Amino acid sequence: MGQIQLNQVTKSFGDVQVIPPLDLTIEDGEFTVFVGPSGCGKSTLLRLIAGLEDITSGHIAIDGKDATDVPPAKRGLAMVFQSYALYPHMSVRKNIAFPMRMAGVPEDEQKRRIEAAAKALNLTDYLDRRPGQLSGGQRQRVAIGRAIVREPAAFLFDEPLSNLDAALRVGMRLEISELHKRLATTMIYVTHDQVEAMTMADKIVVLRAGNIEQVGSPLELYHEPRNTFVAGFIGSPKMNLFDGAEAQKHGATTIGIRPEHIDVSKTEGTWKGRVGVAEHLGSDTFIHVHDTGLVDMVTVRITGDIAARHGDEIYLSPQLDKLHKFDAEGLAIR
Amino acid sequence: MATQHSRSAARLMMAPAVVLLLGWMLVPLTMTLFFSFKKYLPLRGDSLANGLDWVGFENYVRFVTSSSFWPSIYATLVIVGGVLAITVTLGVLLAILLNQPMWGQGIVRILVIAPFFVMPTVSALVWKNMFMDPVNGLLAHLWKAFGAAPVEWLSQASLPSLILIVSWQWLPFATLILLTAIQSLDSEQLEASEMDGAQPLSRFFYIILPHLGRAITIVILIQTIFLLAIFAEIFVTTGGAFGTKTLSYLIFQRVLESQNVGLGSAGGVYAIILANIVAIFLMRIVGKNLDA
Q: Which GO terms describe its molecular function (chain A) (predicted)?
Protein backbone atom coordinates (compact mmCIF):
# COMPACT_ATOMS: atom_id res chain seq x y z
CA MET A 1 0.00 0.00 0.00
CA GLY A 2 2.53 2.65 -0.90
CA GLN A 3 5.52 1.30 -2.70
CA ILE A 4 6.93 3.82 -5.16
CA GLN A 5 9.24 2.86 -7.98
CA LEU A 6 11.12 5.22 -10.26
CA ASN A 7 12.50 3.64 -13.39
CA GLN A 8 14.97 5.60 -15.58
CA VAL A 9 13.18 8.83 -14.75
CA THR A 10 14.58 12.00 -16.29
CA LYS A 11 13.45 15.62 -16.20
CA SER A 12 14.58 18.47 -18.43
CA PHE A 13 13.56 22.11 -18.37
CA GLY A 14 14.19 23.18 -21.95
CA ASP A 15 17.75 22.08 -22.76
CA VAL A 16 18.78 21.73 -19.14
CA GLN A 17 18.57 18.24 -17.74
CA VAL A 18 17.99 18.59 -14.02
CA ILE A 19 17.40 14.90 -13.34
CA PRO A 20 19.60 12.48 -15.31
CA PRO A 21 18.26 8.91 -15.62
CA LEU A 22 17.44 7.82 -12.11
CA ASP A 23 16.27 4.56 -10.53
CA LEU A 24 14.90 4.40 -7.03
CA THR A 25 12.58 2.17 -5.06
CA ILE A 26 10.82 3.36 -1.93
CA GLU A 27 9.42 0.47 0.05
CA ASP A 28 5.98 0.46 1.63
CA GLY A 29 5.92 2.10 5.06
CA GLU A 30 9.40 3.48 4.74
CA PHE A 31 10.38 7.00 5.88
CA THR A 32 12.62 8.15 3.06
CA VAL A 33 14.46 11.46 3.15
CA PHE A 34 15.82 13.20 0.06
CA VAL A 35 18.69 15.35 1.19
CA GLY A 36 21.16 17.51 -0.68
CA PRO A 37 22.34 21.08 -1.08
CA SER A 38 19.95 23.60 -2.59
CA GLY A 39 19.44 23.21 -6.31
CA CYS A 40 20.26 19.49 -6.28
CA GLY A 41 16.87 18.55 -7.73
CA LYS A 42 15.37 17.02 -4.59
CA SER A 43 12.21 19.14 -4.70
CA THR A 44 11.87 18.52 -8.44
CA LEU A 45 12.10 14.80 -7.80
CA LEU A 46 9.34 15.06 -5.18
CA ARG A 47 7.15 17.06 -7.58
CA LEU A 48 7.70 14.42 -10.26
CA ILE A 49 6.48 11.76 -7.85
CA ALA A 50 3.51 13.97 -6.88
CA GLY A 51 2.66 14.52 -10.56
CA LEU A 52 2.92 18.30 -10.33
CA GLU A 53 5.63 18.15 -13.00
CA ASP A 54 5.57 15.88 -16.03
CA ILE A 55 8.54 13.57 -16.35
CA THR A 56 10.54 13.86 -19.58
CA SER A 57 11.15 10.14 -19.92
CA GLY A 58 10.99 7.02 -17.81
CA HIS A 59 8.28 5.50 -15.64
CA ILE A 60 6.86 5.94 -12.17
CA ALA A 61 4.96 3.10 -10.57
CA ILE A 62 2.93 3.35 -7.39
CA ASP A 63 2.05 0.01 -5.81
CA GLY A 64 3.25 -1.72 -8.94
CA LYS A 65 0.78 0.17 -11.18
CA ASP A 66 2.16 2.55 -13.78
CA ALA A 67 1.36 6.09 -12.66
CA THR A 68 3.43 8.02 -15.19
CA ASP A 69 0.45 9.70 -16.85
CA VAL A 70 -1.93 9.63 -13.91
CA PRO A 71 -2.99 13.13 -12.76
CA PRO A 72 -1.83 14.18 -9.26
CA ALA A 73 -5.23 13.78 -7.62
CA LYS A 74 -5.54 10.17 -8.78
CA ARG A 75 -2.17 9.03 -7.48
CA GLY A 76 -3.39 8.72 -3.92
CA LEU A 77 -0.52 10.81 -2.56
CA ALA A 78 -0.82 13.73 -0.16
CA MET A 79 1.64 16.56 -0.05
CA VAL A 80 2.63 19.05 2.64
CA PHE A 81 4.12 22.18 1.14
CA GLN A 82 6.89 24.42 2.42
CA SER A 83 4.49 27.39 2.66
CA TYR A 84 1.79 24.99 4.01
CA ALA A 85 -0.49 26.22 1.15
CA LEU A 86 -3.54 26.45 3.41
CA TYR A 87 -6.63 28.05 1.90
CA PRO A 88 -6.73 31.42 3.70
CA HIS A 89 -10.46 32.06 3.29
CA MET A 90 -11.53 28.72 4.77
CA SER A 91 -11.63 27.76 8.43
CA VAL A 92 -9.30 25.03 9.67
CA ARG A 93 -12.22 22.59 9.56
CA LYS A 94 -12.98 23.42 5.94
CA ASN A 95 -9.30 23.27 5.01
CA ILE A 96 -9.06 19.76 6.40
CA ALA A 97 -12.38 18.78 4.84
CA PHE A 98 -11.47 20.11 1.38
CA PRO A 99 -9.87 16.97 -0.12
CA MET A 100 -12.74 14.84 1.21
CA ARG A 101 -15.32 17.26 -0.19
CA MET A 102 -13.63 17.06 -3.57
CA ALA A 103 -13.64 13.27 -3.36
CA GLY A 104 -17.32 13.21 -2.33
CA VAL A 105 -16.80 11.51 1.02
CA PRO A 106 -20.13 11.36 2.97
CA GLU A 107 -20.68 14.08 5.61
CA ASP A 108 -20.60 11.77 8.68
CA GLU A 109 -17.41 10.14 7.51
CA GLN A 110 -15.86 13.58 6.88
CA LYS A 111 -16.82 14.65 10.37
CA ARG A 112 -15.38 11.51 11.94
CA ARG A 113 -12.07 11.85 10.13
CA ILE A 114 -11.77 15.57 10.94
CA GLU A 115 -12.38 14.88 14.64
CA ALA A 116 -9.80 12.10 14.62
CA ALA A 117 -7.18 14.17 12.82
CA ALA A 118 -7.81 17.21 15.00
CA LYS A 119 -7.44 15.11 18.12
CA ALA A 120 -4.23 13.52 16.91
CA LEU A 121 -2.73 16.89 15.99
CA ASN A 122 -4.02 18.94 18.96
CA LEU A 123 -6.17 21.11 16.70
CA THR A 124 -9.58 20.55 18.29
CA ASP A 125 -9.71 24.05 19.80
CA TYR A 126 -8.74 25.73 16.57
CA LEU A 127 -11.12 24.08 14.10
CA ASP A 128 -13.19 27.22 13.56
CA ARG A 129 -10.30 29.62 13.16
CA ARG A 130 -8.84 30.87 9.92
CA PRO A 131 -5.23 29.94 9.01
CA GLY A 132 -4.25 33.61 9.41
CA GLN A 133 -5.06 33.40 13.12
CA LEU A 134 -2.74 30.44 13.75
CA SER A 135 0.96 30.25 14.58
CA GLY A 136 3.48 28.66 12.22
CA GLY A 137 3.48 25.34 14.06
CA GLN A 138 -0.31 25.18 14.11
CA ARG A 139 -0.52 25.92 10.38
CA GLN A 140 1.96 23.13 9.83
CA ARG A 141 -0.26 20.76 11.77
CA VAL A 142 -3.32 21.85 9.75
CA ALA A 143 -1.42 21.08 6.55
CA ILE A 144 -0.55 17.65 7.93
CA GLY A 145 -4.17 17.18 9.00
CA ARG A 146 -5.35 17.95 5.49
CA ALA A 147 -2.97 15.28 4.23
CA ILE A 148 -3.92 12.65 6.84
CA VAL A 149 -7.69 12.69 6.24
CA ARG A 150 -7.19 11.57 2.65
CA GLU A 151 -5.69 8.35 3.96
CA PRO A 152 -3.09 8.47 1.19
CA ALA A 153 -0.78 5.72 -0.01
CA ALA A 154 2.16 7.99 0.77
CA PHE A 155 2.86 11.39 2.27
CA LEU A 156 5.16 13.82 0.51
CA PHE A 157 6.80 16.56 2.57
CA ASP A 158 8.56 19.44 0.81
CA GLU A 159 10.87 21.09 3.36
CA PRO A 160 7.96 21.43 5.79
CA LEU A 161 9.98 22.69 8.75
CA SER A 162 12.10 25.34 7.08
CA ASN A 163 9.72 28.20 8.00
CA LEU A 164 9.65 27.34 11.71
CA ASP A 165 11.97 28.57 14.43
CA ALA A 166 14.63 26.25 15.84
CA ALA A 167 12.76 25.10 18.95
CA LEU A 168 9.54 24.43 17.08
CA ARG A 169 11.44 22.57 14.40
CA VAL A 170 12.77 20.04 16.91
CA GLY A 171 9.25 19.58 18.28
CA MET A 172 7.63 19.11 14.85
CA ARG A 173 10.41 16.73 13.86
CA LEU A 174 9.44 14.47 16.74
CA GLU A 175 5.73 14.82 15.94
CA ILE A 176 6.23 13.81 12.32
CA SER A 177 8.39 10.83 13.34
CA GLU A 178 5.76 9.85 15.89
CA LEU A 179 3.06 10.15 13.21
CA HIS A 180 5.02 7.88 10.92
CA LYS A 181 5.38 5.22 13.62
CA ARG A 182 1.64 5.39 14.31
CA LEU A 183 0.35 5.40 10.73
CA ALA A 184 3.12 3.25 9.25
CA THR A 185 2.47 4.90 5.89
CA THR A 186 5.19 5.58 3.34
CA MET A 187 6.60 9.06 3.75
CA ILE A 188 8.97 10.94 1.48
CA TYR A 189 10.56 13.95 3.05
CA VAL A 190 12.68 16.55 1.29
CA THR A 191 15.13 18.65 3.26
CA HIS A 192 18.48 20.36 2.95
CA ASP A 193 19.10 19.88 6.66
CA GLN A 194 21.15 16.75 7.27
CA VAL A 195 20.18 16.75 10.96
CA GLU A 196 16.52 16.28 9.96
CA ALA A 197 17.59 13.56 7.56
CA MET A 198 19.68 11.70 10.17
CA THR A 199 17.09 11.89 12.94
CA MET A 200 13.94 11.03 11.00
CA ALA A 201 14.84 8.73 8.13
CA ASP A 202 14.67 4.99 7.71
CA LYS A 203 16.41 5.55 4.40
CA ILE A 204 18.33 8.58 3.21
CA VAL A 205 18.80 9.41 -0.46
CA VAL A 206 21.68 11.86 -0.91
CA LEU A 207 21.33 13.87 -4.10
CA ARG A 208 23.75 16.10 -5.93
CA ALA A 209 22.91 17.78 -9.25
CA GLY A 210 20.05 15.33 -9.81
CA ASN A 211 22.29 12.30 -9.27
CA ILE A 212 21.81 9.88 -6.42
CA GLU A 213 25.13 9.83 -4.58
CA GLN A 214 24.18 7.20 -2.02
CA VAL A 215 21.13 5.47 -0.62
CA GLY A 216 21.14 3.90 2.81
CA SER A 217 20.17 4.05 6.44
CA PRO A 218 21.41 7.08 8.39
CA LEU A 219 24.14 5.09 10.14
CA GLU A 220 25.28 3.37 6.96
CA LEU A 221 25.80 6.79 5.41
CA TYR A 222 27.54 8.01 8.51
CA HIS A 223 29.90 5.09 8.90
CA GLU A 224 30.41 4.09 5.28
CA PRO A 225 30.04 7.11 3.00
CA ARG A 226 30.45 5.98 -0.60
CA ASN A 227 32.34 9.08 -1.69
CA THR A 228 33.81 12.37 -0.47
CA PHE A 229 30.57 14.29 -1.16
CA VAL A 230 28.47 12.09 1.12
CA ALA A 231 31.31 12.03 3.67
CA GLY A 232 31.36 15.81 3.77
CA PHE A 233 27.59 16.28 3.66
CA ILE A 234 26.46 13.85 6.34
CA GLY A 235 27.54 14.58 9.91
CA SER A 236 27.75 17.78 11.89
CA PRO A 237 30.28 19.28 12.28
CA LYS A 238 31.62 18.16 8.92
CA MET A 239 34.17 15.41 8.43
CA ASN A 240 37.75 16.70 8.04
CA LEU A 241 38.97 15.81 4.56
CA PHE A 242 42.58 16.18 3.51
CA ASP A 243 44.57 15.24 0.44
CA GLY A 244 48.27 15.45 -0.30
CA ALA A 245 51.18 13.80 1.47
CA GLU A 246 49.27 12.84 4.61
CA ALA A 247 46.69 11.01 2.49
CA GLN A 248 49.33 9.22 0.44
CA LYS A 249 50.86 7.85 3.66
CA HIS A 250 47.61 5.90 4.02
CA GLY A 251 47.58 4.84 0.38
CA ALA A 252 44.72 7.14 -0.69
CA THR A 253 44.15 10.39 -2.60
CA THR A 254 41.91 11.83 0.08
CA ILE A 255 41.46 10.80 3.66
CA GLY A 256 38.67 11.80 6.00
CA ILE A 257 38.35 11.73 9.75
CA ARG A 258 35.30 12.80 11.73
CA PRO A 259 35.80 15.43 14.46
CA GLU A 260 34.81 12.94 17.16
CA HIS A 261 37.46 10.42 16.05
CA ILE A 262 40.45 12.61 16.83
CA ASP A 263 42.18 12.35 20.19
CA VAL A 264 43.54 15.52 21.70
CA SER A 265 46.61 15.92 23.86
CA LYS A 266 48.64 18.86 25.13
CA THR A 267 51.94 17.01 25.01
CA GLU A 268 52.14 14.52 22.14
CA GLY A 269 50.33 13.30 19.03
CA THR A 270 50.45 12.79 15.27
CA TRP A 271 49.69 16.36 14.19
CA LYS A 272 50.67 19.55 15.93
CA GLY A 273 48.54 22.71 15.63
CA ARG A 274 47.33 25.87 17.27
CA VAL A 275 43.93 26.30 18.89
CA GLY A 276 41.63 28.77 17.12
CA VAL A 277 38.02 29.25 18.14
CA ALA A 278 36.52 26.81 20.64
CA GLU A 279 32.73 26.41 20.57
CA HIS A 280 31.43 25.31 23.96
CA LEU A 281 28.06 23.58 23.82
CA GLY A 282 28.24 22.30 27.38
CA SER A 283 28.02 18.61 26.55
CA ASP A 284 30.58 18.89 23.77
CA THR A 285 33.27 21.28 22.71
CA PHE A 286 34.22 21.86 19.08
CA ILE A 287 37.78 23.10 18.70
CA HIS A 288 39.00 24.57 15.44
CA VAL A 289 42.71 23.83 15.07
CA HIS A 290 44.89 25.79 12.66
CA ASP A 291 48.45 25.51 11.34
CA THR A 292 48.52 21.72 11.24
CA GLY A 293 50.07 21.81 7.78
CA LEU A 294 47.18 19.65 6.46
CA VAL A 295 44.28 22.00 5.68
CA ASP A 296 43.27 25.45 6.85
CA MET A 297 41.31 24.17 9.75
CA VAL A 298 40.75 20.85 11.46
CA THR A 299 37.62 20.51 13.57
CA VAL A 300 37.85 18.35 16.68
CA ARG A 301 35.00 17.34 18.92
CA ILE A 302 35.62 16.46 22.54
CA THR A 303 33.15 15.43 25.17
CA GLY A 304 32.88 17.80 28.08
CA ASP A 305 35.31 20.66 28.37
CA ILE A 306 39.02 21.22 27.89
CA ALA A 307 41.29 23.92 29.22
CA ALA A 308 42.48 25.08 25.82
CA ARG A 309 42.75 28.78 25.08
CA HIS A 310 43.04 30.61 21.81
CA GLY A 311 46.61 30.32 20.50
CA ASP A 312 47.63 27.32 22.64
CA GLU A 313 49.63 24.53 21.04
CA ILE A 314 47.78 21.25 20.77
CA TYR A 315 48.45 17.74 19.45
CA LEU A 316 45.92 15.70 17.46
CA SER A 317 45.93 11.96 16.82
CA PRO A 318 43.36 10.37 14.48
CA GLN A 319 41.90 7.02 15.48
CA LEU A 320 43.34 5.03 12.61
CA ASP A 321 40.56 2.41 12.51
CA LYS A 322 38.01 5.23 11.96
CA LEU A 323 39.90 6.75 9.02
CA HIS A 324 37.99 7.01 5.71
CA LYS A 325 40.08 6.59 2.55
CA PHE A 326 39.05 7.80 -0.90
CA ASP A 327 40.65 7.23 -4.31
CA ALA A 328 41.35 9.75 -7.07
CA GLU A 329 37.67 9.69 -8.20
CA GLY A 330 36.57 10.48 -4.67
CA LEU A 331 35.14 6.97 -4.16
CA ALA A 332 35.65 5.17 -0.89
CA ILE A 333 38.36 2.49 -0.72
CA ARG A 334 37.11 -0.42 1.33
CA MET B 1 7.74 56.05 15.45
CA ALA B 2 7.26 59.72 14.72
CA THR B 3 8.51 62.30 17.15
CA GLN B 4 6.49 65.33 18.23
CA HIS B 5 8.66 67.42 15.98
CA SER B 6 8.24 65.34 12.81
CA ARG B 7 4.48 65.11 13.39
CA SER B 8 4.04 68.87 13.52
CA ALA B 9 6.28 69.26 10.49
CA ALA B 10 4.15 66.73 8.63
CA ARG B 11 0.96 68.61 9.56
CA LEU B 12 2.45 71.87 8.41
CA MET B 13 3.50 70.44 5.07
CA MET B 14 0.14 68.75 4.48
CA ALA B 15 -1.82 71.89 5.37
CA PRO B 16 -1.82 73.50 1.90
CA ALA B 17 -3.14 70.34 0.28
CA VAL B 18 -5.83 69.91 2.93
CA VAL B 19 -6.92 73.55 2.68
CA LEU B 20 -7.04 73.32 -1.12
CA LEU B 21 -9.07 70.11 -1.05
CA LEU B 22 -11.50 71.46 1.53
CA GLY B 23 -11.98 74.67 -0.46
CA TRP B 24 -12.43 72.69 -3.64
CA MET B 25 -15.14 70.60 -2.03
CA LEU B 26 -16.80 72.92 0.47
CA VAL B 27 -17.32 75.99 -1.73
CA PRO B 28 -19.32 74.22 -4.48
CA LEU B 29 -21.16 72.15 -1.88
CA THR B 30 -22.23 75.23 0.07
CA MET B 31 -23.25 77.02 -3.11
CA THR B 32 -25.29 74.04 -4.26
CA LEU B 33 -27.06 73.89 -0.90
CA PHE B 34 -27.64 77.64 -1.02
CA PHE B 35 -29.13 77.64 -4.53
CA SER B 36 -31.29 74.60 -3.81
CA PHE B 37 -33.38 76.67 -1.38
CA LYS B 38 -33.75 79.62 -3.78
CA LYS B 39 -35.82 80.40 -6.84
CA TYR B 40 -33.12 81.08 -9.44
CA LEU B 41 -34.20 81.34 -13.09
CA PRO B 42 -31.54 83.42 -14.88
CA LEU B 43 -33.66 83.81 -18.04
CA ARG B 44 -36.47 85.42 -16.01
CA GLY B 45 -34.13 88.05 -14.61
CA ASP B 46 -33.16 86.37 -11.33
CA SER B 47 -29.58 87.08 -10.38
CA LEU B 48 -27.39 87.09 -7.31
CA ALA B 49 -27.06 90.89 -7.57
CA ASN B 50 -30.86 91.43 -7.30
CA GLY B 51 -31.19 88.96 -4.50
CA LEU B 52 -32.92 85.55 -4.78
CA ASP B 53 -36.28 84.55 -3.28
CA TRP B 54 -36.21 81.93 -0.51
CA VAL B 55 -38.57 79.08 -1.44
CA GLY B 56 -37.87 76.53 1.30
CA PHE B 57 -38.11 72.90 0.16
CA GLU B 58 -40.19 73.68 -2.95
CA ASN B 59 -37.33 72.76 -5.32
CA TYR B 60 -36.79 69.44 -3.53
CA VAL B 61 -40.45 68.54 -3.78
CA ARG B 62 -40.67 69.55 -7.43
CA PHE B 63 -37.58 67.52 -8.33
CA VAL B 64 -38.87 64.21 -6.98
CA THR B 65 -42.47 64.72 -8.08
CA SER B 66 -41.47 65.46 -11.66
CA SER B 67 -42.36 62.69 -14.10
CA SER B 68 -38.69 62.31 -15.12
CA PHE B 69 -37.39 61.53 -11.63
CA TRP B 70 -38.17 57.82 -11.17
CA PRO B 71 -37.30 56.89 -14.78
CA SER B 72 -33.95 58.59 -14.24
CA ILE B 73 -33.28 56.58 -11.07
CA TYR B 74 -34.22 53.42 -12.97
CA ALA B 75 -31.91 54.29 -15.87
CA THR B 76 -29.05 55.04 -13.48
CA LEU B 77 -29.42 51.75 -11.64
CA VAL B 78 -29.73 49.71 -14.84
CA ILE B 79 -26.63 51.29 -16.35
CA VAL B 80 -24.52 50.99 -13.18
CA GLY B 81 -25.69 47.43 -12.49
CA GLY B 82 -25.31 46.29 -16.07
CA VAL B 83 -21.83 47.72 -16.45
CA LEU B 84 -20.70 46.27 -13.12
CA ALA B 85 -22.01 42.81 -13.99
CA ILE B 86 -20.35 42.81 -17.41
CA THR B 87 -17.01 44.28 -16.37
CA VAL B 88 -16.58 42.08 -13.29
CA THR B 89 -17.55 38.84 -15.04
CA LEU B 90 -15.53 39.46 -18.17
CA GLY B 91 -12.75 41.07 -16.11
CA VAL B 92 -12.27 37.88 -14.06
CA LEU B 93 -12.24 35.72 -17.19
CA LEU B 94 -9.87 38.04 -19.06
CA ALA B 95 -7.56 38.26 -16.06
CA ILE B 96 -7.32 34.47 -15.91
CA LEU B 97 -6.69 34.34 -19.65
CA LEU B 98 -4.00 37.03 -19.54
CA ASN B 99 -2.32 35.31 -16.61
CA GLN B 100 -1.55 32.28 -18.79
CA PRO B 101 1.97 32.32 -20.18
CA MET B 102 1.74 33.07 -23.91
CA TRP B 103 3.71 34.58 -26.74
CA GLY B 104 3.47 38.38 -26.98
CA GLN B 105 2.06 38.72 -23.47
CA GLY B 106 3.35 42.27 -22.95
CA ILE B 107 1.79 43.63 -26.14
CA VAL B 108 -1.51 41.85 -25.56
CA ARG B 109 -1.74 43.31 -22.07
CA ILE B 110 -1.12 46.83 -23.35
CA LEU B 111 -3.78 46.36 -26.06
CA VAL B 112 -6.28 45.16 -23.49
CA ILE B 113 -5.69 48.23 -21.35
CA ALA B 114 -5.86 50.65 -24.31
CA PRO B 115 -9.63 51.44 -24.26
CA PHE B 116 -9.22 52.95 -20.81
CA PHE B 117 -7.04 55.69 -22.28
CA VAL B 118 -9.63 56.78 -24.86
CA MET B 119 -11.62 59.81 -23.73
CA PRO B 120 -15.31 59.02 -23.02
CA THR B 121 -16.51 61.57 -25.61
CA VAL B 122 -14.29 60.06 -28.29
CA SER B 123 -15.16 56.46 -27.56
CA ALA B 124 -18.88 57.30 -27.50
CA LEU B 125 -18.55 59.05 -30.88
CA VAL B 126 -16.64 56.13 -32.34
CA TRP B 127 -19.23 53.65 -31.12
CA LYS B 128 -22.11 55.81 -32.31
CA ASN B 129 -20.82 56.48 -35.81
CA MET B 130 -18.60 53.52 -36.58
CA PHE B 131 -20.48 50.65 -34.98
CA MET B 132 -24.05 51.59 -34.13
CA ASP B 133 -25.04 53.80 -37.05
CA PRO B 134 -28.05 52.03 -38.62
CA VAL B 135 -26.93 52.90 -42.19
CA ASN B 136 -23.14 53.02 -42.25
CA GLY B 137 -22.22 51.26 -39.00
CA LEU B 138 -20.20 48.09 -38.97
CA LEU B 139 -22.89 46.32 -36.99
CA ALA B 140 -25.49 47.37 -39.58
CA HIS B 141 -23.28 45.85 -42.31
CA LEU B 142 -22.92 42.68 -40.27
CA TRP B 143 -26.68 42.40 -39.83
CA LYS B 144 -27.23 43.04 -43.56
CA ALA B 145 -24.61 40.42 -44.43
CA PHE B 146 -26.87 37.89 -42.73
CA GLY B 147 -29.92 39.35 -44.43
CA ALA B 148 -31.35 40.83 -41.24
CA ALA B 149 -32.74 44.34 -40.88
CA PRO B 150 -30.15 46.57 -39.14
CA VAL B 151 -30.92 47.40 -35.53
CA GLU B 152 -31.30 51.05 -34.65
CA TRP B 153 -29.14 50.58 -31.62
CA LEU B 154 -29.40 53.92 -29.88
CA SER B 155 -33.15 54.25 -30.19
CA GLN B 156 -34.42 50.65 -30.14
CA ALA B 157 -31.96 49.30 -27.61
CA SER B 158 -30.72 52.48 -26.03
CA LEU B 159 -29.90 51.24 -22.50
CA PRO B 160 -28.11 48.07 -23.64
CA SER B 161 -26.15 50.15 -26.17
CA LEU B 162 -25.02 52.56 -23.48
CA ILE B 163 -24.12 49.71 -21.17
CA LEU B 164 -22.07 48.20 -24.00
CA ILE B 165 -20.18 51.45 -24.62
CA VAL B 166 -19.46 52.13 -20.97
CA SER B 167 -18.50 48.50 -20.30
CA TRP B 168 -16.01 48.65 -23.13
CA GLN B 169 -14.39 51.62 -21.42
CA TRP B 170 -14.30 50.16 -17.93
CA LEU B 171 -13.46 46.54 -18.71
CA PRO B 172 -9.70 47.31 -18.93
CA PHE B 173 -9.76 48.84 -15.48
CA ALA B 174 -11.44 45.79 -13.96
CA THR B 175 -9.14 43.44 -15.87
CA LEU B 176 -6.03 45.27 -14.73
CA ILE B 177 -6.92 45.23 -11.04
CA LEU B 178 -8.06 41.59 -11.17
CA LEU B 179 -4.95 40.55 -13.10
CA THR B 180 -2.64 41.95 -10.44
CA ALA B 181 -4.75 40.20 -7.80
CA ILE B 182 -4.54 36.88 -9.63
CA GLN B 183 -0.78 37.22 -9.94
CA SER B 184 -0.49 37.40 -6.17
CA LEU B 185 -2.15 33.99 -5.76
CA ASP B 186 0.28 31.52 -4.21
CA SER B 187 0.94 28.81 -6.81
CA GLU B 188 1.43 26.26 -4.03
CA GLN B 189 -2.23 26.80 -3.08
CA LEU B 190 -3.32 25.85 -6.57
CA GLU B 191 -1.00 22.86 -6.56
CA ALA B 192 -2.29 21.80 -3.15
CA SER B 193 -5.88 21.97 -4.39
CA GLU B 194 -4.88 20.03 -7.48
CA MET B 195 -3.42 17.29 -5.28
CA ASP B 196 -6.55 17.45 -3.13
CA GLY B 197 -8.50 16.40 -6.20
CA ALA B 198 -10.10 19.68 -7.22
CA GLN B 199 -11.03 19.85 -10.91
CA PRO B 200 -10.34 23.13 -12.79
CA LEU B 201 -13.88 24.40 -12.19
CA SER B 202 -13.74 23.66 -8.45
CA ARG B 203 -10.29 25.27 -8.29
CA PHE B 204 -11.85 28.40 -9.80
CA PHE B 205 -14.78 28.54 -7.39
CA TYR B 206 -13.00 27.41 -4.21
CA ILE B 207 -9.54 28.96 -4.59
CA ILE B 208 -9.31 31.63 -7.30
CA LEU B 209 -12.64 33.40 -6.81
CA PRO B 210 -12.34 33.75 -3.00
CA HIS B 211 -8.80 35.02 -3.50
CA LEU B 212 -10.17 37.67 -5.88
CA GLY B 213 -12.96 38.66 -3.48
CA ARG B 214 -11.21 41.71 -2.15
CA ALA B 215 -10.11 42.94 -5.57
CA ILE B 216 -13.65 42.50 -6.90
CA THR B 217 -15.10 44.62 -4.07
CA ILE B 218 -12.55 47.34 -4.80
CA VAL B 219 -13.42 47.27 -8.50
CA ILE B 220 -17.13 47.52 -7.68
CA LEU B 221 -16.57 50.39 -5.25
CA ILE B 222 -14.43 52.51 -7.54
CA GLN B 223 -16.52 51.84 -10.64
CA THR B 224 -19.82 52.61 -8.91
CA ILE B 225 -18.54 56.01 -7.86
CA PHE B 226 -17.49 56.83 -11.42
CA LEU B 227 -20.47 55.19 -13.14
CA LEU B 228 -23.01 57.18 -11.13
CA ALA B 229 -21.57 60.25 -12.80
CA ILE B 230 -21.27 59.16 -16.45
CA PHE B 231 -22.31 61.99 -18.69
CA ALA B 232 -20.33 62.35 -21.91
CA GLU B 233 -21.48 58.96 -23.26
CA ILE B 234 -25.15 59.95 -22.89
CA PHE B 235 -24.67 63.48 -24.13
CA VAL B 236 -22.90 62.34 -27.28
CA THR B 237 -25.11 59.38 -28.17
CA THR B 238 -28.77 59.83 -27.21
CA GLY B 239 -28.78 63.22 -25.54
CA GLY B 240 -30.90 61.77 -22.79
CA ALA B 241 -33.64 60.50 -25.11
CA PHE B 242 -35.06 56.96 -25.30
CA GLY B 243 -35.01 56.41 -21.55
CA THR B 244 -31.31 57.01 -21.07
CA LYS B 245 -31.72 60.02 -18.84
CA THR B 246 -29.76 59.22 -15.69
CA LEU B 247 -29.89 61.24 -12.50
CA SER B 248 -26.77 63.22 -13.36
CA TYR B 249 -28.10 63.90 -16.86
CA LEU B 250 -31.44 65.05 -15.45
CA ILE B 251 -29.64 67.53 -13.19
CA PHE B 252 -27.71 68.81 -16.21
CA GLN B 253 -30.95 69.32 -18.12
CA ARG B 254 -32.62 71.13 -15.23
CA VAL B 255 -29.76 73.55 -14.84
CA LEU B 256 -28.61 74.15 -18.40
CA GLU B 257 -31.50 73.29 -20.70
CA SER B 258 -34.34 74.56 -18.51
CA GLN B 259 -32.11 77.21 -16.92
CA ASN B 260 -33.51 76.40 -13.49
CA VAL B 261 -30.51 76.58 -11.16
CA GLY B 262 -32.52 76.11 -7.96
CA LEU B 263 -34.25 72.93 -9.16
CA GLY B 264 -31.01 71.48 -10.51
CA SER B 265 -29.21 72.20 -7.25
CA ALA B 266 -31.88 70.34 -5.33
CA GLY B 267 -31.32 67.40 -7.67
CA GLY B 268 -27.59 67.73 -7.01
CA VAL B 269 -28.17 67.41 -3.28
CA TYR B 270 -30.20 64.22 -3.89
CA ALA B 271 -27.31 62.87 -5.96
CA ILE B 272 -24.87 63.63 -3.15
CA ILE B 273 -27.07 61.75 -0.69
CA LEU B 274 -27.45 58.79 -3.07
CA ALA B 275 -23.70 58.58 -3.72
CA ASN B 276 -23.01 58.70 0.02
CA ILE B 277 -25.48 55.89 0.74
CA VAL B 278 -23.73 53.74 -1.87
CA ALA B 279 -20.33 54.73 -0.52
CA ILE B 280 -21.25 53.84 3.08
CA PHE B 281 -22.48 50.41 2.02
CA LEU B 282 -19.42 49.74 -0.05
CA MET B 283 -17.01 51.05 2.56
CA ARG B 284 -18.52 48.64 5.06
CA ILE B 285 -18.12 45.70 2.69
CA VAL B 286 -14.58 46.69 1.83
CA GLY B 287 -13.76 47.34 5.47
CA LYS B 288 -14.95 43.84 6.38
CA ASN B 289 -12.94 42.34 3.56
CA LEU B 290 -9.80 44.27 4.44
CA ASP B 291 -9.95 43.01 8.02
CA ALA B 292 -9.98 39.34 7.10
A: ABC-type maltose transporter activity; ATP binding; ATP hydrolysis activity
